[in-house]
Amino acid sequence: MEHAPPAAPAVRETLExxxxxxxxxxxxxxxxxxxxxxxxxxxxxxxxxxGVSIAMDVFGKDGDFDASTDAVVRVQAGRLRxxxxxxxxxxxxxxxxRIAIPRGGYVPSYELNAIRLPGGARAASGTIARPDASxxxxxxxxxxxxGPTPGEPMALMAPAAPSRSLTWQLRFFWAAMVxxxxxxxxxxxxxxxxxxxxxxxxxxxxxxxLAGAAAQPAFDSLPLIYIAVKAxxxxxxxxxxxxxxxxxxxxxxxxxxxxxxxxxxxxxxxxSFVFEIVPGPAAGDVTVELQSVATGRVLLSRNLTxxxxxxxxxxxNIASLLTSTVPASGAIYSYIDQSxxxxxxxxxxxxxxxxxxxxxxxxxxxxxxxLEKLVGEGxxxxxxxxxxxxxxxxxxxxxxxYPPEATLEKAMSLAHRAVQMGPTSPHAxxxxxxxxxxxxxxxxxxxxxxxxxxxxxxxLGMAAAYGYGLIFAGKYDEGTPILGxxxxxxxxxxxxxxxxxxxxxxxxxxxxKAAIASESLRTTTSKSHYLAARLIGARISGRDKLAxxxxxxxxxxxxxxxxxxxxxxxxRKYPGDLTDRLVQSLRAAxxxxxS
Length: 595
Known about the structure:
- 51% of the residues lie in helices and 6% in strands.
- It has a five-stranded mixed beta sheet, with helices on one face.
- Strand 5 (272-279) and strand 6 form a beta hairpin.
- Among the domains are: 8-112, no CATH class; 222-337, Rossmann fold (3-Layer(aba) Sandwich).
- It contains 23 helices and seven strands.
């Protein structure tokens, strides 16, 4: 029986995981070639996949390309086939779709990765998934079993042979039950001890989630978010719909998507919260309240008028509300942190957020070590890898002592791992986009930043990252309004938003906005480019005395930058026109050699 070919969305999702994998992480040519071949075939242009067109479109050859003397396409296609085989034999063993480039041509083929059940498929002592498969990507099925071991239980087992008695089956059933009960007992004891003793890796007691603890370790737990609609009318319906759509996109929380169960023991839910939608004080108003499930404490109450919940306006208002509550910088994480009931991942994400509010070597190392410890403990969170990748880039940019010997290659490995573990994670795509921007891969950086934004348009942090990426790609007119809107909508934003807005406004010629943005950098730890922005902003505002003080500080703290600011901007892959304008403005302020 012939199977239908995989659907286009499944092929595209597999392609994205392939491109983000460790297998393909060190071969930009292979990634570029694979994307081209699959996208052209999926667009119905398989007849274009010839050696000459591939050479010109992918490898930049001109019309005189001669395949008989230049083997670049054949060599790269051979390398691509090897990488595909390697990926599907290791990282991609559980992929639902397999992609291949058959020999003798360049048109990709696809097949469903059907479940195979050998006659004696085995399960290894109660473990049926591959050790390196994540809980999200590896369902408990015999798809992952690869060899016979007589006398062991397995999932989806074929009918037992006549020689195997009922007594034999019952023995293994009760053995399995004893093992499960023992594991749950150990888990409960560990959780109780950790909660009472308040250790670094506090495992919050979550009775409602114990059944799934094996798939999601307690130290990896995130805040649980529910929604309860207690208001009627079109306005409440729009608010609820927008709120659901927004919450579903955040990977800093676990969104349950239903009402909290009022009959359960609320004291067992210290990291559970509910957004209640209730009638507002006036007709047509809707009030959104964020409450702790355990204590009933209201963390936030925001009233939306009928105009604010109208079509076309409600999304923006919900985005502002969620950005102030759901990310690590928001009210939920702040409440958990102050209550000292956080899990390891929550605590580390709080430290990570503090670094971006106070960008110093000390806050960086504290956050990095915390996330690094989670990785060592076997975290399944793509969010942890994404934030660790970004911190690794920060270590390279700012020459921090920790981690020792930080490189962009190591950061790339972490970022690829984040995308692989969380193919729909906005944070993972943002981290990979940030890294590509640092490497000068402008188009790829913009693509990834845009995808992060599209995965969760309700997170103003993703909007800010996309706008920032556009600005530092030289697309000032596109990026500045996006970043500017994020800055205006969320007052608790990190300082890099202000720096990006300064650059965008400066290059657009809006000197008043540039000066205001530069003023917001004055409370941060000293950084050469932040001080440079403040110096330029002070001169724009005519504050010559302040400008002189900042120039002296810049020269004293960053003598290499003060002598040659261009080198820093070039190293950070600033666009050429931006570098020239900044250097010119700094030179007018007495910073930098005239040569």
